[in-house]
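Supplementary notes for students who missed Thursday's class. We covered one full example, reproduced here. Read the sequence, then the structure, then the short commentary at the end.
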Amino acid sequence: MSVDFPLTALPYGVYMGGEGAPHLCVAAGTDLIDLHAAADDLADAVAPALLRTGRLNELLAAGRPTWSGLRNALIERAGNGSLDRHRRPQDGVEMHLAWEVADFVDFYSSQHHAENVGRMFRPDAEALLPNWRHLPVGYHGRSGTIFVDGTPVHRPRGQRRGPDGEIVFGPSVRLDMEAELGWVLGGATRSGETVPTTSAADHLFGIVILNDWSARDIQAWEYVPLGPFLGKSFATSVSAWVLPLDALDQSRREGPTQNPQPLDYLRTTEPWAFDIELAAHLNGDELARVNAGDALYWSPAQQLAHMTVNGATVRPGDLFGTGTISGPEPHQRGSLLELTWNGTEAIELPDGSTRTFLQDGDEVTLTARAGDIPLGPVTGKVLPSF
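Structure (token representation):
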């Protein structure tokens, strides 16, 4: 499916070129511009070899000055037509994952989502755990199961509690989606080097929509005491297009007030929230819509600072997710877990069918816009268990 991107966007992707090899590209309007083919025309802005690897990683490693220089050149030359001979329609091309994912971290940064989960599973206790307002809670995921838009997802299998409390093994019966955003990182760091919030832009290359599929029944049985494992590691879907951080300048804003004030290493000196409207669709029907700028308590700069404060490295191609993004209203809940209140309140779809969790054959699509700039969508269809 083609997406109409204005020249202020120019997101990066990878498509299968005519000779059967992956080519790096950017999207302009409903076309793409083949950067592999255009590399020599951009040699004054970037080393041509960086555009001929069939993936983003080498460009990610080059760092912020190279990213900005290439973007400026692309805006100028895509606008004046000098790259038109390298254009082709987006329709009909095979898109690949734009980069090789190095490490994957998923955070838990939406206060309303965390409170909803707390109220569901700890009704007699505080909705937020004591640490939640002090640090961006997260966990390390599995980079080998990050899939590009359009890749179907098999229903996972694992252990879960049966209806009578017995432990059974088999396909998940509580498969869920999670509406998130993801940040793609570049600019490597060394072990023991941290990334302060003031240096976040040196490493935050761009943003994707992210669906961190979740098997809630497997997750519920296994997560104590070490957290998510098989209930999360089977599939995470991301957009085919990576929108550069610079394209979000007009959407930047202050985030929610943080109370208590974060520790020094988590404080920011500039706004790091973004007005991005995110929507979740099931079989073509909208389920939820939420503004990430309102709903995310912890910013990407704070997430990155916390992720590296212990000396953990950044590698080009690292990815981290925001966690499920939910707002205060029922229609702003970014997961079926919340929309159906842990399966106790089925939702009715326009065709008259109902859902508590995903059924085989269901197709989930997440879309988003930052003002007049769309983010590439991410779609996945649920296949039966293997």
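Commentary. The radius of gyration is 21 Å. The longest strand covers residues 373-383. If anything here is unclear, bring it to office hours.
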